[in-house]
Amino acid sequence: MSYHWRSSKPETMVTKSLTDTDTMSIPTSPATTAANKDSIPVSPVTSRPPSPLSLHVAKPLEMKSAQLALPSHIDVDGLSWPSIGTKQRLNETEEEKSQRIAKISDAVKTILECIGENPNREGLFKTPERYAKALMFFSKGYEENIKDVVNDALFDEDHEEMVVVKDIEVFSLCEHHLVPFTGKISIGYIPNRRVLGLSKLARIAEMFSRRLQVQERLTKQIAITLFEILKPQGVAVVMEASHLCMVMRGVQKPSSKTVTSYMLGRFRDDPKTREEFLTFVRT
Ligand SMILES: [Zn+2]
């Protein structure tokens, strides 16, 4: 069993769109603040006149939904692309948890010493432990698995119009610098008689963003996961984010944003469908 990102097998049912690696910096207004960390505001929209078959009255997919068949890109335990260490973390006892926090705290203390601080002064005394706990929260997505996230929210539904949930606010950590990047993700899909509860789209974005990431991979993982779970006619994911590693250091362009997208199925093949999605996302 392998727990790493399997980008080495691009031939498996996923074909990159022409735009999927488009990464561009677009000067815009200053980045959004990091307030409301814990809420995931979303604004769902559906295409064309609202279907009488509202998603909210969809009936649960038989009891089969409980045994969600996990396809190739998603590991058997539903964790989806974790490293081996994340499995240890998931299964550890309370005592092992505190040992982990203590170990991170020690490391942070070392960092404080290395930058020339006194880790024993009043203001910093509890910082290592605080940081250790915060870091565990920032990376809590490693302990979540797609099975639990999705489980009872798959519905059989005769709905084949585009579903878009846009502006899902996410907070992630850049794996190259361990500093945050924050932004908004918009997800669209065209069902193939199977829909997912709308809030679950945001939960999936949350699960993958609360791991060490690069924006391109985050965008792609969300798209591929949805594509495999829903077997829809298409999936589109667009993310616009501001990276503190760019804003605070290096090139120091405070207003620059990075946009990534990943399109599958009809969004990839049909420019009109893609345009319709992008119009939703922009407005
Ligand atoms: Zn970075």
Helix and strand topology:
Blueprint: E1 24-27, E2 43-46, E3 59-60, H1 84-91, H2 94-114, H3 127-138, H4 146-150, E4 154-156, E5 163-174, E6 180-190, E7 194-196, H5 198-209, E8 212-213, H6 215-230, E9 234-243, H7 244-247, E10 256-265, H8 266-269, H9 271-282
Parallel strand pairs: 5-8
Antiparallel strand pairs: 1-10, 2-5, 3-4, 4-7, 5-6, 6-9, 9-10
Helix pairs in contact: 2-3, 5-6
The site of zinc ion has 5 residues, from loops.
Description:
This protein has 283 residues and is α+β, with helices and mostly antiparallel strands. The chain has 2 domains: 24-74 and 154-282, GTP cyclohydrolase I, C-terminal domain/NADPH-dependent 7-cyano-7-deazaguanine reductase, N-terminal domain (GTP Cyclohydrolase I, domain 2, 2-Layer Sandwich), CATH 3.30.1130.10; 85-138, GTP Cyclohydrolase I, Chain A, domain 1 (Orthogonal Bundle). 33% of the residues lie in helices and 22% in strands. The chain contains 9 helices and 10 strands. It has helices at residues 84-91, 94-114, 127-138, 146-150, 198-209, 215-230, 244-247, 266-269, 271-282, and strands spanning 24-27, 43-46, 59-60, 154-156, 163-174, 180-190, 194-196, 212-213, 234-243, 256-265. The strands form 2 sheets. Strands 1, 2, 5, 6, 8, 9 and 10 form a 7-stranded mixed sheet that branches. The protein has a 3-stranded antiparallel sheet with strand order 3-4-7. Strand 5 (163-174) and strand 6 form a beta hairpin. Helix 2 crosses helix 3 (127-138) and helix 5 runs antiparallel to helix 6. It starts with 23 loop residues before the first strand and ends with a helix. Zinc ion binds at residues 174, 176-177, 243, 245. Zinc ion is lined by residues 174, 176-177, 243, 245. Belongs to the GTP cyclohydrolase I family. Pathway: Cofactor biosynthesis; 7,8-dihydroneopterin triphosphate biosynthesis; 7,8-dihydroneopterin triphosphate from GTP: step 1/1. InterPro entries: GTP-CH-I_C/QueF, GTP-CH-I_N, GTP_CycHdrlase_I, GTP_CycHdrlase_I_CS, GTP_CycHdrlase_I_dom.
